[in-house]
Amino acid sequence: MILLEKFPTVCTKSQNTKNHLNCGLNFSRRCVSDSEGSPSKSKTGLVIGIVGGFLGIILLGGLMLFFWRGRHKGYKREIYVDVPGEVDRRIPFGQLRRFAWRELQLATENFSEKNVLGQGGFGKVYKGVLSDSTKVAVKRLTDYESPGGDAAFQREVEMISVAVHRNLLRLIGFCTTPTERLLVYPYMQNLSVAYRLRELKPGESVLIWPTRKRVALGTARGLEYLHEHCNPKIIHRDVKAANVLLDEDFEAVVGDFGLAKLVDVRKTNVTTQVRGTMGHIAPEYLSTGKSSEKTDVFGYGIMLLEIVTGQRAIDFSRLEEEDDVLLLDHVKKLQREKRLDAIVDRNLHKNYNMDEVEMMIQVALLCTQGSPEDRPAMSEVVRMLEGEGLAERWEEWQHVEVTRRQEYERLQRRFDWGEDSIYNQDAVELSGGR
């Protein structure tokens, strides 16, 4: 009879490797027999040892493969999204929840039109209710097949996963299928600043002046975080009242990163596509396609004017009163005429502080200067809204603006322009620096 000197297989959990199991076979032990001098017994023992070792290796390999595949599948399912048609392309999502398509279909009542909250450049946003009664906003990307649509999905997920701030919209989760891309956000019951300014239903309350001030400051802080505390910096590229949401306490939450650009400071910031909303787009971005954080500063300045006036950035109805179509030009004109009371939203019914209105308009005009180098950084905007450094910057702006205006009037007197020529000159200034 052949005896193994010691049972050869021992499996222990590794303390120094990432493997769950550290299994080994030790065949260095010699086989002993009852009679060491018997050739037949020695050969039999050798055969049994070889066969047993071979079977042990096969068994061990099968076990290791089983555990590895199970662990690999679970890890992939929880952490990564598979992008069909793109080999080995993965996006890390940290703690984000991955929703099933059916779950979001039920939550939105099969994406019913009655649940539409809004529509942007890449798709519609629907109100939804999850199975646990949680209200959500589901953004359904409609052009996922185009490079822009798929890139928008990846861009938004990447950016929101690293941008966490009380004044930035938090992403709850996502859903991806071979034909769909969806993003899931908390539902903001007070909707957007634009809604509260211009789209109220009967019986709904308007934004009071203290709330408008808080919205202006909260939005500035959110943009400051994107520009100065994210690495790489994040440029929103479509800052406007419609993209600033209001939570249950009417705190500003900057949303809709679908158009945003994740800027690596080591790479160029020139884009082949201009993204944004007319009236909010900085002139240098419109004419050159070059965006920067100062592009957002310009859009923020226009948004401040929306908050003060309650009006849209472009309003053709002003032509009936021979006013400027662009809100920025309209405000500049009234500011020169010292008619600031005519600028303020009539829905406020005189319930505001005129000094604070003037301060906010001054910040807005500083943010919307024609040259991006002249615009303040968002951190400086925050300080000015808090009452620091505005007087000095405003004095500089007035000097530059007076000089520019005098030069413009001198050219008007020098050349006999008709009404059409003057209109064309204004159009040139719009596409260039203002």
UniProtKB/TrEMBL annotation:
Enzymatic reactions: L-seryl-[protein] + ATP = O-phospho-L-seryl-[protein] + ADP + H(+); L-threonyl-[protein] + ATP = O-phospho-L-threonyl-[protein] + ADP + H(+)
Ranges annotated as spanning the membrane: 46-68
Compartments, as annotated in UniProt: Membrane
Residue ranges of every copy of the Protein kinase domain listed in the record: 111-390
EC number(s) per entry: 2.7.11.1
Family: Belongs to the protein kinase superfamily. Ser/Thr protein kinase family.
Protein name: non-specific serine/threonine protein kinase
